[in-house]
Task: structure prediction
Amino acid sequence: MESGTVETGAAEVAGPNGGGAPAAAAIAEAIEVLNPATGETVASVPVDSPATVAETVARLRESQAEWEAIGIEGRYHWLGKLRDWLLDNSERVLDTMQAETGKVRADAANEPAYLADLVNFYGTHAAKFIGEEAVRPHSPLMAAKKLRVQYRPHPVVGIISPWNFPLVLALGDAIPALQAGAAVVVKPSEFTPLGLAEVAKAWKEEIGAPDVFACVQGLGETGGALVDAVDFVQFTGSDRTGRKVMARAAETLTPVSLELGGKDPMIVLADADIDRAANAAAWGGMFNSGQVCMSVERIYVEEPAYEEFVAKLTAEVRGLRQGADGKGFGKEVGAMTSPNQIGIVEDHVQDALSSGATALTGGKRAPGPGDYFEPTVLVDVDHSMKVMRDETFGPVVGVMKVRDAEEALRFANDTRYGLSGSVFGAKERAEKVARRVECGAVNVNDVLVNYFAMDVPMGGWKESGIGYRHGAPGIKKYCRTESLVITRFGGKREPTWYPYTRGRRGLVSRIANAFNARDWRRRLGMRG
Ligand code: NAD
Result:
């Protein structure tokens, strides 16, 4: 079967969803995809061998030069067709996504909308971000040179993506890379291989676009083979795997961009609109069942607002409807996509409860079928508990009362992560506090919205990553700069060339001093 295509029906080889953690050592021949909302088998996807990965990269490498040559507008033409395909086929895309992730319809619906916006954003801004730059020489000594910077793509970009947003975190990185002129090979998560494969197939067969975008399937071994073969790696996933990817890329000196985990804090100041803060905390913590790298995971509330905030947050979370809603938009909280993750969530909540925390709502797995964890609000938590320190990545928030903003900031910054965060409060005060949160993006009086503000970059501090998405850095990273220093006029020899003589070197020194010194004595060759 061709790389990236999908067979439906039960697999003969047990896949990662069938038996806990994927065993990288035992190389699977196929991935069995289960619907986490029902436990039913959805499809079986053959795993691509390292040889197939290398062949796929080599094939796309052949087509890349022409893709680069058609220029920014030429590439936007094809990416615009991809946008139109996503919009025209969004129902089909959402059906596949729900089947492999167990998301509710509303959470899934965000993905094609974001991607269409992203195509337009980079299509219309690429010339500004990566168009050729004319640079004025900084010194009169360079006046005879014309300086230009051109941005040339890394020929083949490899994208390794996680399961929580199967299209946003795969296609969302492929779009700026393709717009930059790179060819792109994606390895989606073994838990959610179907959606991206469907798009890659449509790129080729329905859109008829150039052969510069493909998908390979598999687990860690396939991901490692992709790292070996490409010229740039965009990885999104856990910091544990990110370290392995970076170490492997170091062997071939391949540059990487890593978007890793988070433990995002929310600070609620006493002068906040408490209704807005509580509703935002509920959505920011439970959206996509909390399986969001930028999810609100921990909340610090100034003492005077604490009781009211906790009461309103608990009421909002308790009212959320959980389950599978098909096409219906009838539920708020869906399933846990990875069976490993529900175990981690359960462990964090148990650890907190056994150390004195209280679950005001939720606190346990929901009865089956499907992998569901009840939307949970924990209080009486502290920073010795996993739920306040490690990435939970589930529908759980821990809430702590703090004396003041200083204490809130101390707790917020007491983490090895630094992806994003949020601050709620009266405008000026909240903004002041936001500027002191140690992370790559902070929302003031909102949550998660920075991901849709693609005009500005986002990237993790500390162990949350290396590199940026969005804005100019989100496309520049897929390029290598090529500086052109072009001689406009010159004689047969420059004064710095051979032969070296006392007279010529003296002249060079006098000219250099005249321009480099910042006082008249030194400009004239005297001591200061
Ligand atoms: P993961 O690290 O387990 O897997 C990510 C990808 O890496 C998968 O495609 C997997 O097959 C592949 N992989 C595994 N071992 C590999 C290896 N040795 N070499 C190459 N590839 C390998 O992560 P996950 O469980 O799929 O995703 C959840 C994590 O992703 C969370 O930590 C979450 O915070 C993070 N995440 C980060 C962002 C962000 O933008 N910062 C966004 C979403 C998710």
